[in-house]
Amino acid sequence: MIKFLIKRLLEFIPVLLIISFIVFTLVFVAGDPVALLLPEDASQEDIENLREALGLDRPFIVQYGTYLSGLLQGDFGKSFRYNSDALPIVLERLPATIELALSAMVVAIIIAIPMGVWSASKRNSFVDLFATGGSVLGKAMPNFWLGIMLILLFSVTLGWLPVSGRGSWMHLILPAITLGTGIAAEMTRLIRSSMLEILSQDYIRTAKSKGLRKFLVIYKHAFRNSLIPVITITALQTSTLVGGALVTETVFSWPGLGQLLIQAINTRDMAIVQASVFVIAILVILMNLIADLLYRVLDPRIKYN
Amino acid sequence: MSESNVVLNVQQLHTSFKTNSGYVQSVKDVSFQVQKGETLAIVGESGSGKSVTALSIMGLIEKPGVIEKGKIELEQVDLTKINDKEYRKLRGNDIAMIFQEPLTSLNPLFTIGNQIAEAIKLHQGLDTKQAKVNVIELLKRVGIPRAEKVYYSYPHTLSGGMRQRVMIAMALSCKPKLLIADEPTTALDVTIQAQILELMKKLKDENNTAIILITHDLGVVAEMADSVAVMYAGQIVEFADVFTIFADPKHPYTQGLLNSTPKFYEKNEVLQSIKGTVPTSNSMPIGCRFNPRCPYVTQKCLNENPSLKKLDSGRQVRCWLVEEEGETLV
């Protein structure tokens, strides 16, 4: 297993290199931040001077080389806006985003597992119709709209929950539901179809022929088998989750990475953008690694080699 | 044999499946009895209703399937009348089943020990430790070497033959009165087939278990069966003891099946086949269901379905050609 982990971690290196290149290139072509840093009436000479001071006048490949060598030392550049190193600012915001993403996952799991399993075991019943219809609805509702509707209902009209910000667990409820609904919808469909396939397997018939209760047949013999594709695909969707987090954080003024990233994009704070995207990319890669480890734990047929 | 020796008594079983074009009958008018220690072979081509009959007995017919009518009595208890909870107590305990595909019939995520112990713990109320002792004993009985190690193994680490032994151990774990084996050797290679059949015979003799053996392999029938029910298109077309079936098949379908089997003493003989295929449940021919494929078809066969007639020495045949000879059963 250690060998497997080392191998997987080594595989990260080229992936991260490619990501660094893409991120750098995108920011490079996105435009010159100098115009935003200087007052509107700045002279051409001032602009040139600042460009030179920031190294922005050098060729692309040189700038990338400088950027890369900085990365290797953990230096993601300086934020123009905060006037300090970009990485600590990004990492400071990270826990809030992870908190939101994990809570959304919990919401999704709590909704999706019973719904998916139930609808598969009662195929074509009212429950199934409700779950399938509900998941289409859940998927179709945009995050920002759902967030606003939830704020209007629970915060403005009923006054039960805070409108925005981060602090108590009360603050977490609405953003977690907002972000979790879409994932729950996707997961419900996945679990349903995976369960339907598993329920027609021979070993399910064997389990029934032993005289086991339906509950045991479904949750012991079928559900665990159905989880393998669900985990893989859910892990692959981490990037969708992060994307959703950006929107949700903005709607709820949640002080996370997403909010920071959007502000940074608006102000062309390149270093923050680059550091954020890089951190998000590492998150996605780590989630996939965790999924890999998880389904190896679940399925004895999958070996570490 | 006396009535009290009857383990299973199936009468007039009709099993249907609901489709878009209405109900189609997969099994029609099937009746037979199995005595203690007897092996009844049900033979027929794919689609003849053998497995549906077996699953009906196990109570494992799932929607859209339904047992329309008939009796399935296990030691005088009519299984079509009991509720799901009562059925579960019998399944794996009094009636057990071995399936065709040992490779896919075991759950890949649980150890062999876990899967066999499950039924023992459920029906005999043993704890994990006691169940483990029983499981290892069972594994040894079915001829699995290093049983203690196999207890903790996962199915994918075992060969097909070993897995079928595990399935047999599982089926026999609660000493069932009736064992249904649905093509237990079809997926195995020939040498392993012989070993598995030998094992089933041995275990049957030890426990006096009644066996229903579903197969399309007449070699297996000759090896194992005491009596034989030949099924065609959802109906029993001939029923007799194994010697009578092989020596003097009456139904043209049984004759066809026997003629299409290679014989040891007839070298270089061209094998015969039965022309055509089994009709599907929703396109049954009018009259005798075998008439499109029967070499002796008459006008009567095209119009009327023959009933199952009881002839001398208890054999039963569903054919107009032997109609005059016996009394009508069904």
TrEMBL record, chain A:
Membrane-spanning intervals of the chain: 12-31, 100-121, 142-163, 169-191, 227-252, 272-295
Primary localization: membrane
Membrane topology reported for the UniProt record: Multi-pass membrane protein
Pfam hit, one: BPD_transp_1
Record keyword Amino-acid biosynthesis present: no
One term under GO cellular component: plasma membrane
Swiss-Prot/TrEMBL keywords: Cell membrane, Membrane, Transmembrane, Transmembrane helix, Transport
GO annotation, biological process: transmembrane transport
Residue ranges occupied by any ABC transmembrane type-1 domain in the UniProt entry: 94-291
Compartments (UniProt record): Cell membrane
Annotated family: Belongs to the binding-protein-dependent transport system permease family.
UniProt name for this protein: ABC transporter permease
UniProt organism field: Lysinibacillus telephonicus
TrEMBL record, chain B:
GO molecular function: ATP binding; ATP hydrolysis activity
Alphabetized InterPro entries for the sequence: AAA+_ATPase, ABC_Ni/Peptide_Import, ABC_transporter-like_ATP-bd, ABC_transporter-like_CS, Oligopep_ABC_C, P-loop_NTPase
Keyword set includes Transport: yes
Protein location: Cell membrane
Gene Ontology cellular component annotations, sorted alphabetically: plasma membrane
Main location: membrane
Residue runs in coiled coils: none
Biological process, per Gene Ontology: peptide transport
A UniProt-annotated Pfam family: oligo_HPY
SMART domains for this protein: AAA
Start and end residues of each ABC transporter domain: 8-258
Assigned keywords, A-Z: ATP-binding, Cell membrane, Membrane, Nucleotide-binding, Transport
Family under the similarity heading: Belongs to the ABC transporter superfamily.
Entries under PANTHER family matching the protein: DIPEPTIDE TRANSPORT ATP-BINDING PROTEIN DPPD, OLIGOPEPTIDE TRANSPORT ATP-BINDING PROTEIN APPD
Protein name stated in the entry: ABC transporter ATP-binding protein
Native source species: Lysinibacillus telephonicus
Lineage, uppermost ranks: Bacteria, Bacillati, Bacillota, Bacilli, Bacillales
